[in-house]
């Protein structure tokens, strides 16, 4: 009951004119970048970090969150119409969405995608309102020992579920932790890896790193080859073409329900998120289908389930951020960077210290989802026109916003150099099979990990034994160890 | 040697160097962890995992189409040039120059198209950062900013 009262209070915050306007802006931008292949939510949110600082913290997070879940609505459009996923989590929508479009059911595919995302988004919001405070109050009992192992657990999951070989993900975690230690050590006052450069005394700025890693490197990916992307988009969709009929609803109802539940749980896990949720839902639907051979040929269940799952996961991934201070994936990591830039430290105390922000952001998800269904059903034709933007123009726009955006953070040309070099390095890492998401997560969590590790060691008089005598801490360590060891055992059996 | 292995070796070298520098900072003081403990652990982990990745071999992405290296290098030069030109020419002139250079020199677009896009994007970026965010953009030697 308290949750509903708080959610109503949050609605009051979310309905303030500024917050309403930024929720709308986030929904529009999210849908647009979701439709555009190449520019994903991580890059877009990174680009907008300097702009978000101009807003109040609540409005800033509402904007950035809207872009995230908005991109999932829009991402499916290009998948369904062109078999070109607008962003990673929409890959699964190609499997059955594109065959539906080729069979003349593009309208229904676009419609069911929007409705599935909406239903999952609304349900997930209510569940977040119910379980979020419980998460936060549990985490309030955590001391430095538990916090240390929680971060270790989160990073272990991030390496386990991320893209590419796990050993490379661990290398990225290590690099992220190392980068987080650059600057003056706050305890001893010693300079670490600053090479007598005054700029480095404060360490790297998360927005500059994120813009380089996800923005500038994306420009280089787009620049790799000539892409004359002029898709044939002559189809016209009337509102009634987008509305699924009774049979479509019947076939989609259970996949949507299952997708929402599965997506919500996967979204809670560090390292999880929309991409994994959509794949997991697709696999599940195919396994339990009476006619699995229909999958890949236009089965509406193969679209409805994953679409619900990715949206539920995207929203659920705000729980670890807002309640534990642990970003579940790279997009949420960049949003965490936005919060830190505002001077707001996410974690269990957020709900107590900034209840307006916590409940306002959660309530804004209801409003954002309502806006998105309006934007994505009747206005889909308008957004589809964005696919006509040539990749070169998009690359230039990203680059200009990254470079000038990096300068704007400290009015420093040094940041321009950092964002550029970081972009080149990130590009070579991506091309060498290194996933950048664990790097960013480790960078964000590095200082939290170091601070709590040092406190834990002081509490144990230099001995790490406290980390295994605390039951919570031991549980985190055991799960982390199992996450590491179980796949190795499975490999050995094969 | 493939690029994936080379990157891994580069990271391993960075890891061992970082660990050595952290060691000098001190891992432990009288009664508490020193400033070098955490970076030493991170550097050592980077060294060990990167070395293992290098030994494991290359897992570079499978490409659908070959990368046009000449085009990529020209883009890389344009990006680096843009950053350098911001100080001397100022943000607005550098932006116009970047767009004209890329659209004419790399993408072979018409002058009209390149100029149109350059003006629109330069005005948009100036409007957002200078006007809306009040960022004192570098004016350069021409004093336009």
From TrEMBL, chain A:
Please name the Pfam families in this protein's record.
Answer: TctA (PF01970)
Q: Which UniProt keywords apply?
A: Membrane, Transmembrane, Transmembrane helix
Which InterPro entries did the record assign? DUF112_TM
Please tell me whether the keyword Transferase is annotated for this protein.
no
Ranges of residues in domain DUF112: 20-441
Q: Which residues cross the membrane?
A: 20-40, 47-69, 108-132, 139-161, 199-223, 261-284, 318-345, 357-375, 382-407, 465-489
Domain of life, source organism: Bacteria
Q: What is this protein called?
A: Tripartite tricarboxylate transporter permease
Taxonomic lineage is: Bacteria, Pseudomonadati, Pseudomonadota, Alphaproteobacteria, Hyphomicrobiales
């Amino acid at each position: 009951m308290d949750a509903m009262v708080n959610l109503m209070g949050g609605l009051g915050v979310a309905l303030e004119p500024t917050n309403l306007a930024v929720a709308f802006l986030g929904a529009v931008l999210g849908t647009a970048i979701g439709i555009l292949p190449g520019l994903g939510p991580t890059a877009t949110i990174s680009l907008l970090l300097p702009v978000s600082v101009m807003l109040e913290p609540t409005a800033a997070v509402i904007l950035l969150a809207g872009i995230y879940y908005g991109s999932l609505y829009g991402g499916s459009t290009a998948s369904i119409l062109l078999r070109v996923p607008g962003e990673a989590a929409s890959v699964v929508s190609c499997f059955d969405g594109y065959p539906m479009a080729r069979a003349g059911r593009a309208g229904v595919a676009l419609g069911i995608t929007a409705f599935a995302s909406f239903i999952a988004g609304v349900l997930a919001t209510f569940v977040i309102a119910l379980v979020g405070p419980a998460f936060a109050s549990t985490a309030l009992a955590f001391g430095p020992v538990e916090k240390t192992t929680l971060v270790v657990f989160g990073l272990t999951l991030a390496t386990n579920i991320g893209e590419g070989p796990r050993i490379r993900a661990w290398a990225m975690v290590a690099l992220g932790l190392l980068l987080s230690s650059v600057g003056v050590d706050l305890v001893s006052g010693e300079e670490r890896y600053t090479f007598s450069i005054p700029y480095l005394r404060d360490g790297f700025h998360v927005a500059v790193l994120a813009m380089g890693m996800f923005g500038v490197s994306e420009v280089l990916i787009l620049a790799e080859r000539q892409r004359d992307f002029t898709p044939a988009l002559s189809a016209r969709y009337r509102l009634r073409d987008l509305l699924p009929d009774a049979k479509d609803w019947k076939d989609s109802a259970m996949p949507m329900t299952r997708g929402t539940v599965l997506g919500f749980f996967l979204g809670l896990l560090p390292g999880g998120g929309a991409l994994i949720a959509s794949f997991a839902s697709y696999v599940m639907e195919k396994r339990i289908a009476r006619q699995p051979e229909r999958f890949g040929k236009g089965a509406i269940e193969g679209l409805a389930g994953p679409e619900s799952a990715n949206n539920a996961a995207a929203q659920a991934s705000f729980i670890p951020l807002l309640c534990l201070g642990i970003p579940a994936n790279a997009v949420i990591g960049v949003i965490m960077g936005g919060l830190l830039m505002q001077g707001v430290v996410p974690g269990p105390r957020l709900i107590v210290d900034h209840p307006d922000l916590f409940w306002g952001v959660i309530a804004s998800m209801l409003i954002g989802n309502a806006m998105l269904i309006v934007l994505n059903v009747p206005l889909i034709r308008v957004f589809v026109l964005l696919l006509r933007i040539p990749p070169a123009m998009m690359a230039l726009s990203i680059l200009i916003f990254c470079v000038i955006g990096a300068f704007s953070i400290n009015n420093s040309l040094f940041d321009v150099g950092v964002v550029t070099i970081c972009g080149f390095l990130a590009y070579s890492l991506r091309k060498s099979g290194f996933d950048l998401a664990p790097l960013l997560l480790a960078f964000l969590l590095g200082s939290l990990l170091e601070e709590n590790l040092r406190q834990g060691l002081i509490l144990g008089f230099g001995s790490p034994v406290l980390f295994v005598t605390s039951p919570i801490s031991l549980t985190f360590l055991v799960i982390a160890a199992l996450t590491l060891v179980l796949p190795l055992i499975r490999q050995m059996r094969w | 040697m493939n690029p994936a292995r080379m990157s891994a070796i580069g990271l391993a070298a960075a890891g061992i160097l970082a660990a050595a520098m952290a060691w000098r900072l001190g891992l432990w003081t009288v009664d508490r962890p020193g400033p070098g403990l955490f970076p030493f652990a991170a550097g050592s982990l980077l060294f060990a995992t990167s070395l293992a990745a290098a030994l494991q071999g290359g897992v570079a992405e499978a490409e659908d189409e070959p990368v046009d290296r000449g085009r990529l290098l020209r883009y890389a030069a344009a990006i680096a040039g843009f950053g350098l030109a911001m100080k001397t020419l100022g943000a607005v002139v550098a932006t116009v120059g970047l767009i004209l250079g890329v659209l004419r020199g790399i993408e072979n677009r018409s002058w009209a198209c390149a100029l149109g896009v350059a003006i629109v994007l330069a005005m948009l970026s100036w409007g957002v950062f200078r006007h809306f965010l009040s960022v004192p953009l570098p004016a350069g030697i021409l004093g336009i900013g």
